[in-house]
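The pair is set out directly below:
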Amino acid sequence: MATCPHCGEYLDTYHRCRGLWRLRLRVWGKVAMGGLFGAAAATVVLLALYDGVSAGPVVIGALLGAAVMFAYLRGEP
Protein backbone atom coordinates (compact mmCIF):
# COMPACT_ATOMS: atom_id res chain seq x y z
CA MET A 1 0.00 0.00 0.00
CA ALA A 2 1.06 3.56 -0.58
CA THR A 3 1.60 6.03 2.23
CA CYS A 4 0.57 9.66 2.43
CA PRO A 5 3.52 12.04 1.96
CA HIS A 6 2.05 14.47 4.48
CA CYS A 7 1.16 12.31 7.49
CA GLY A 8 2.79 8.92 6.81
CA GLU A 9 -0.49 6.98 7.17
CA TYR A 10 -1.65 4.35 4.68
CA LEU A 11 -3.67 5.65 1.77
CA ASP A 12 -6.98 3.85 1.61
CA THR A 13 -10.50 4.85 0.63
CA TYR A 14 -11.20 6.41 4.04
CA HIS A 15 -7.91 8.29 4.49
CA ARG A 16 -8.16 11.76 6.00
CA CYS A 17 -4.83 13.54 6.17
CA ARG A 18 -4.22 15.06 9.55
CA GLY A 19 -1.17 16.97 8.39
CA LEU A 20 2.56 16.92 8.58
CA TRP A 21 2.67 18.26 12.13
CA ARG A 22 1.40 14.94 13.52
CA LEU A 23 4.18 13.05 11.77
CA ARG A 24 6.78 15.47 13.12
CA LEU A 25 5.27 15.32 16.61
CA ARG A 26 5.42 11.53 16.53
CA VAL A 27 9.05 11.51 15.36
CA TRP A 28 10.24 14.07 17.92
CA GLY A 29 8.29 12.28 20.64
CA LYS A 30 10.22 9.11 19.85
CA VAL A 31 13.50 11.06 19.85
CA ALA A 32 12.61 12.46 23.28
CA MET A 33 11.88 8.95 24.54
CA GLY A 34 15.30 7.87 23.25
CA GLY A 35 16.83 10.72 25.23
CA LEU A 36 14.99 9.63 28.37
CA PHE A 37 16.16 6.04 27.93
CA GLY A 38 19.73 7.26 27.38
CA ALA A 39 19.60 9.36 30.54
CA ALA A 40 18.16 6.45 32.51
CA ALA A 41 20.86 4.10 31.23
CA ALA A 42 23.60 6.60 32.12
CA THR A 43 22.11 7.04 35.59
CA VAL A 44 21.98 3.28 36.21
CA VAL A 45 25.57 2.81 35.03
CA LEU A 46 26.82 5.71 37.16
CA LEU A 47 25.01 4.45 40.23
CA ALA A 48 26.37 0.93 39.72
CA LEU A 49 29.96 2.05 39.21
CA TYR A 50 30.41 5.13 41.40
CA ASP A 51 27.48 5.26 43.87
CA GLY A 52 26.73 8.79 42.73
CA VAL A 53 25.31 10.72 39.82
CA SER A 54 26.41 14.03 38.35
CA ALA A 55 24.51 16.02 35.77
CA GLY A 56 27.15 16.08 33.02
CA PRO A 57 27.28 12.38 32.15
CA VAL A 58 23.50 12.09 32.42
CA VAL A 59 23.07 14.91 29.89
CA ILE A 60 25.62 13.27 27.61
CA GLY A 61 23.73 9.97 27.93
CA ALA A 62 20.47 11.74 27.06
CA LEU A 63 22.03 13.35 23.98
CA LEU A 64 23.50 10.04 22.86
CA GLY A 65 20.16 8.27 23.34
CA ALA A 66 18.36 10.95 21.33
CA ALA A 67 20.98 10.82 18.58
CA VAL A 68 20.77 7.02 18.34
CA MET A 69 16.97 7.13 18.15
CA PHE A 70 17.03 9.87 15.52
CA ALA A 71 19.53 7.90 13.41
CA TYR A 72 17.42 4.75 13.83
CA LEU A 73 14.26 6.54 12.68
CA ARG A 74 16.07 8.04 9.69
CA GLY A 75 17.44 4.63 8.69
CA GLU A 76 21.07 5.71 8.80
CA PRO A 77 23.77 3.19 9.74
